[in-house]
Amino acid sequence: MALLIILIICFVIILASSQPCQTPDDFVTATSPGHIMIGGLFAIHEKMLSSDDYPRRPEIQKCVGFDISIFLHTLAMIHSIEMINNSTLLSGVKLGYEIYDTCTDVTVAMAAALRFLSKFNCSREIVELKCDYSSYMPRVKAVIGAGYSEITMAVSRMLNLQLMPQVSYESTAEILSDKIRFPSFLRTVPSDFYQTKAMVHLIQKSGWNWIGIITTDDDYGRLALNTFAIQTAANNVCIAFKEVIPAFLSDNTIEVRINQALEKIIAEAQLLDVLKNVTFTDGGNSFHFDAHGDMNTGYDVVLWKEINGHMTITRLAQYDLKNGVFIITDQEAKNEFRNLKQIQSKCSKECSPGQMKKTTKSQHICCYECVDCPENHYSNQTDMDHCLLCNNETHWAPVRSTVCFEKEVEYLSWNDSLAILLMALSLLGIMFVLAIGIIFTRNLNTPVVKSSGGLTVCYVILLCHFLNFANTGFFVGEPQDFTCKTRQTLFGVSFTLCISCILMKSLKILLAFSFDPKLQNFLKCLYKPIPIIFTCTGIQVVICTLWVILAAPTVEENVSLPRVIILECEEGSVLAFGTMLGYIAILAFICFIFAFKGRKLPENYNEAKFITFGMLIHFIAWIIFIPVYATTFGKYLPAVEIIVILISNYGILCCMFFPKCYVILCKQETNTKSAFLKMIYSYSSHSAGSLAMSHVSLDSTNSNIPMTNPSPGGKSAAWQKSKDLEEQVFGRICRENATSISKTLPRKRISSI
């Protein structure tokens, strides 16, 4: 111990004199031999005197400005090595040391590093140039130091040549964590990344976003400034100004420069008028060298406070690197932290959730205006740079919203008032169909029923109406793939079958009461009821089948509306849908033409004019449907088609069956065989007379009989001739009708006039 004290005294004397070195040994501050040599780099002096010689000589100058604290670090290293040597930790192995004073100068430190790299046990201190230093034995195995990051980086780049371990006790520059550039560097202090991170957290915890920075003009200060600037920008903190002071100043000079900077800060702070608090929380940490060679030992948070003209430094908390939290141990420190929040250091009022920042013309991002988030955008934090977009397919948001709301799924539901009304009309139509079927069944043998084509045809038409009324139920409720496919195909096939049957009725009526031989021959050739009905309906079945197979209607979510999702049936193919409706329209038009030609046939049993009216209603309804369906949007789109189907169904049902039901129920005297024959006789007489007059006129024209001054005898002869012709035609018609009726009634077959 006494030897160590003597060594320290001699060491201090040497350092105090600190003359320029003449030999390499003079350059060494402290040394002790050993089997394993450990180098040391300490900035025991604050600077190196500049040479007054000109030109300047390449030599190491005298160092001045003794630093007692760094000197104590040097003694701590020596003491630690001596304790290891005096212990049994390394039995038979003695540790030596070779310590250099860097004089806080990179050039001096580089000179020391060159000696560290010189070859071991060599008579001459040389550094060999090699391509591979794997077998190279330097005189020093490891280096402790240096303190300043700028010096450490320069030395580390040289030591990397031989991958010599270097452990720093004070260098905190973030770049030293880069193991590609500094693979052999380790340190027992955290990186500046964590230091600046802790500072930013402290600023946020105090509710500030408008600050100034004071840093030293060296690698340590510049790198810390860059890291700090990046982290402040990432946390929406603005740097109002940056003050860079020389790295190596006396305490008095530093205090003066800091006071000047503080005055600048106060001047800047006068521009501020707002302050907002923010919070910061995190969890625990452990100390270790990480993958970057940094030891996460944390920081002490200290407060510089001037009291009665004296600057005092108070420890407020400890910063946990791993969890990023401040650990406060006493109530007084907590009060100091709360007092920090009372300091106003914000440029603009913070934006609340539902708003975003709009940068003003100021050069700083911390000076901004707050604007509301537009529709379908939201912000859920304060001071957000931009509003977040909601998923427009599933969510929506009003103006100045803090959350996105899920869109409601809508469709024409069963409890909708319009759907209830339409279903009530459909149910009423079904009741009418059943009532008409019962009335016709109970009056099966009456002329009205027989003139309607018989019970079979009536049942087929009524069944089609029943299916169409029932089919409207597939348009209501939550759409399913089955209902989407069924509702259109069922409507198309059933309505086509209905129109086909009505077409055959129109042909039959026209055939029964037509006295034009050419038209009769044409109608007889055309009139094939069952083949025509099956052919017309079969074509529609093929159209619908191809539609379902190739492009079937499916359920689709319509998300184009801002606040709701419309669940609807996508028809699959507009062409197929149009083809189905167009084919029905063609059949209805043909039916309309035939019915229109027979509109003047016998009144009591003539369906032609009612069929004409029914087809007109169908045309008008579907012509209106096309533009309305194309322009309607939303959940009520299926209601449009339901309404058109109901109009078409009711129009045909009322025109086809209601007049007959009226005759059956209210005018039973006209629904008899005698009344029927009387009507036939009257119409046939009128038709025969018209036909006879037509023939007489034709014969008179062809015989060139002069019409001027006709003789009474000639007039009587012509009249007699036309009367004879009328009787012949009438007799033929009556015989044919009588024969037809006599054949029909005994066999109880259903026939039509």
Mean pLDDT across every amino acid position: 76
Question: Which strands sit side by side, in order, in the main sheet?
Answer: 1-5-2-6-7-8
Distance between the termini: 142 Å
Radius of gyration, in Å, reads: 55 Å
Number of helices: 20
Count of beta strands: 22
- Percent helix among the residues? 40-55%
Shape: rod-shaped
Return the structural class: alpha/beta
Which spans of ≥5 residues are poorly predicted at pLDDT below 50? 1-6, 8-19, 267-283, 691-753
Main β-sheet description: 6 strands, mixed
Describe the protein.
Helix content is 50%, strand content 14%. It is built from 20 helices and 22 strands. The strands form eight sheets. It has a six-stranded mixed β-sheet with strand order 1-5-2-6-7-8, with helices on both faces. A three-stranded antiparallel β-sheet has the order 11-12-13. β12 (310-320) and β13 form a beta hairpin. α10 (417-442) runs antiparallel to α12 (454-471) and α19 runs antiparallel to α20 (712-744).
Keywords:
three-stranded antiparallel β-sheet; 20 helices; alpha/beta; 753 residues; single chain
In short:
The protein is α/β, with parallel strands linked by helices.
Write the layout of secondary structure elements.
Blueprint: H1 2-17, H2 24-27, E1 30-32, E2 36-42, E3 45-48, E4 63-66, H3 68-85, E5 95-101, H4 106-116, E6 142-144, H5 149-159, E7 166-168, E8 185-187, H6 192-205, E9 210-216, H7 219-234, E10 238-245, H8 251-269, E11 299-307, E12 310-320, E13 325-327, H9 331-340, E14 355-359, E15 368-372, E16 377-378, E17 388-389, E18 395-396, E19 405-406, E20 408-410, H10 417-442, H11 447-451, H12 454-471, H13 481-512, H14 517-526, H15 529-551, E21 554-558, E22 564-570, H16 574-597, H17 608-631, H18 637-666, H19 673-702, H20 712-744
Parallel strand pairs: 2-5, 2-6, 6-7, 7-8, 9-10, 20-22
Antiparallel strand pairs: 1-5, 3-4, 11-12, 12-13, 14-15, 16-17, 18-19, 21-22
Helix pairs in contact: 4-5, 6-7, 10-12, 10-18, 12-13, 12-18, 13-14, 13-15, 13-16, 15-16, 16-17, 17-18, 19-20
